[in-house]
Amino acid sequence: MQPWQPLLDWWFGAVPASAVEVAAARQQLWFGKRDSQDREARERFAGQVEQALAGELQSWTQSPRGWLANLILLDQLPRMIFRDTPRAFAGDPLARALLQQGLEQGLDRQLTAIERVFAYIVFEHAEDLALQECAVELFRGLHEAAAADERDLFGNFLDFAERHRQVIARFARFPHRNAILERSSSVEEELFLREPGSRF
Known about the structure:
- By secondary structure, the protein is mainly alpha-helical.
- It has one domain (5-193): Tetratricopeptide repeat domain (Serine Threonine Protein Phosphatase 5, Tetratricopeptide repeat), CATH 1.25.40.10.
- The chain has 10 helices and no strands.
- The chain has helices spanning 5-12, 19-31, 35-53, 64-75, 77-81, 92-105, 113-124, 129-145, 151-171, 187-193.
- Helix 6 (92-105) crosses helix 7 (113-124), helix 7 (113-124) packs antiparallel against helix 8 (129-145) and helix 8 runs antiparallel to helix 9.
- The protein is globular, with a radius of gyration of 16 Å.
- The N and C termini lie far apart (35 Å).
């Protein structure tokens, strides 16, 4: 078994299934906020996260799924393991560089559509408008290529990408990160944070 396989099995499920089935089974893990999930992520994968943050898993990137697992360790897992602390975003610069490298090599095109979501989401997390535009285009491509029974699912992913882009276009950063990163919020940002759905 490859060293990244347990992580991918945990994230996507060990049994092959359609994108809709995978998303239905894993939605809470991906986008929910549960102490039990954060604890499991910490207990099972904290060591690999630290290795990824130290740049020690570059050999994984020779495989498309190893590349994807590295992205998840840099982008998704810190947000769980280090939730509500600055370290939640510690892997973002490395993840962006790794995603760009993989896109240039075509690694993403060797993954399933639902797997590609968790590569492209790295740009969706960026406080950079050009990368946000790129994220929207990547998610639009997934939506346009989706089968009829998967179009709603990938349409939702595209909608979230567009909403993230709108926030960055307006503020050049995500206001909900300000408190965690000890950044002062503007009056406009404070008003925005009172709106439903302003915190991703």
